[in-house]
Amino acid sequence: MPQTTAATAGVECDVEISTNGSTWLNLSGSITMVEVPEQERMTGVGYTFEGDVGIVTSGKRVPVEVRVTGLYTEESGEAYESIRTHFQAPGGTRIYFRYSPLGIGEAGRKVFTASNDGTTAGAVVVNKFKLPDPNAGAADPLPFFWTMLVPAFVETDTGSSTGLGS
């Protein structure tokens, strides 16, 4: 197989949240990174007195803790205020979350949407929220981050029923 020429950078990623799964708020203008760790499947191993290797079985997929980093602002409707509100609500307000690594520029782009069952979009809980850390010795914009425990992601394409911009 020849070396790919289709590799791309994630600099045009779109990140959106929703409270109802149908009206989406685009936070891309103040988000700097989405970190999705590898997902694991539960496994077990047992040994018998016969044979030289273990017997491996598998189970359910383990949720992943997705970390999203943004730039701190005090503007209404931007990422910091939007996520802080959901996190600080009594009991935490569930949000729908999705991202498209290559953005929504044209049909057919991949969209990854948080899911509770692995088949449809589902609202998740913001389980951690990190306030900004001011530093008098730095001129960089102040970052903040939040994490969500996501059972699975559903992959669709832009232009489909759950694609970005719907």
Describe this structure in words.
The chain is mainly β and 166 residues long. It has one helix at residues 79-88, and strands spanning 14-18, 24-26, 31-35, 41-46, 55-61, 64-71, 96-100, 110-115, 126-130, 143-150, 152-157. Helix content is 6%, strand content 39%. The protein contains 1 helix and 11 strands; from the N terminus they run ββββββαβββββ. The strands form 3 sheets. A 5-stranded antiparallel sheet has the order 2-1-7-8-11, with no helix packed on it. Strands 3-6-10-9 form a 4-stranded antiparallel sheet, with helices on one face. A two-stranded antiparallel sheet has the order 4-5. The model is unreliable at 161-166 (pLDDT under 50). The protein has one domain: Elongation Factor Tu (Ef-tu), domain 3 (Beta Barrel).
Q: What do the pLDDT scores average to?
A: 92
* Terminal Cα span: 37 Å
Q: Give the helix/strand class.
A: mainly beta
Taken together, the total number of domains comes to: 1
Can you tell me the overall shape?
Answer: globular
CATH topology: Elongation Factor Tu (Ef-tu), domain 3
- Integer-rounded radius of gyration: 19 Å
Largest sheet properties: 5 strands, antiparallel
CATH architecture: Beta Barrel
Low-confidence stretches: 161-166
Q: What count of helical segments does DSSP give?
A: 1
State which percent range the strand residues make up: 35-45%
Spell the H/E element sequence: EEEEEEHEEEEE
Record the strand order, biggest sheet: 2-1-7-8-11
Q: What fraction, in percent, of the residue positions are helical?
A: under 10%
**Would you count the extended β strands for me?**
11
Which CATH C-level class is it? Answer: Mainly Beta
